[in-house]
Amino acid sequence: MSKHGRILVAMSGGIDSSLASVLLHEQGYEVIGMTMKTWDYASSGGTKKETGCCSLDSINDARTIAVELGFPHYILDIRNEFGDYVIDHFTGEYLEGRTPNPCVLCNTHIKWDALLRRADRLDCEFIATGHYANLREENNRFVVSKGIDAWKDQSYVLWGVSQESLARTKLPLGNLHKSEIREMAKERGFMDLVNKSESYEICFVPDNDYRGFLKRRLPELEGQVAGGNYVLQDGSVVGKHEGYPFYTIGQRKGLGIALGYPVFVTEIRKETNEVVLGRDKELERNGMFVSKLNLQKYARIESPIETITKVRYKHDGAPALITQVEDDRIKVRFHESVSAIAPGQAAVFYEGDDVVGGGWISKSFKEE
Fold this sequence. Notes:
Number of strands: 17
Organism: Runella defluvii
Family: Belongs to the MnmA/TRMU family.
Helix content: 25-40%
GO molecular function: ATP binding; tRNA binding; tRNA-uridine 2-sulfurtransferase activity
EC number: 2.8.1.13
CATH architecture of the largest domain: 3-Layer(aba) Sandwich
Number of helices: 9
Strand order of the largest sheet: 12-15-14-13-16-17
Oligomer: single chain
Largest sheet: 6 strands, antiparallel, barrel
Protein name: tRNA-specific 2-thiouridylase MnmA
Strand content: 25-35%
């Protein structure tokens, strides 16, 4: 009989999720490991060697840990669910002129649901992951908060996890630094994990070329959108682009145009197949609307509150007043302008270290 009960651990084969399973095993949980197969690199048409959480090597690395510690390990094939939901959303957002965040979508809508369904079948009370974040209960609600390792904190990607899912979740790495995890792996003799490189790419775009992926996924796309106009804010045409889905707000490199000064993509106009260019100052906005909300700390934002709001994963966050203007819509008013707010990206609201909630950026604006 285990000390704490049975727990299903998501194991990607990397050092973080592997050490999460090791630590829970040592704490007395009855651990069951599970590696999710989300994607076949061969079907992506990319040119790089298969790496990352879906590769055969990663699956074998996860299984090796399980065998060494004596707990079961399973492979869960969710390629159909992943493709139908995450990849269709990814391509659909670019076709709408937005910039998607598939990793957030996968974490919160695919992996958690898939894990919990399998946890029920295996009589596991809890699930666990190797995310660097903390989780606590306050006022009968479960709240994700930042991990103590500021560089590795992954609370941003967990804003969309539901209350029901958080109630059954353990995050064993939240109070540890990455350097401590590496030392723990060394002490336990897992040198292959210590020396393993980490992947920061989108798993189904292994060469980091999302344009190429879109062209392979939607071969008819180029004929439909190629040859649109680059325009300035005043509407003047300054060149031709490859098609609006192949650009993102804030992009500077790969534009294929020289105007004698640095220019960035400041707006994407799907209806007219126009990509608006401008100087860096023209990227600045002081407000946005966020929809498709998931609130964690509160059931509803009853009155405006001050937050630190992040508009992308590596954004430091900026002070902002947020107001829930509809059941599924929040207005964000930054105290100072923020650059390159991209519709389609996730916005996450913080009070101190706590995740108030988050949603998807639908529109940015600039008010005087």
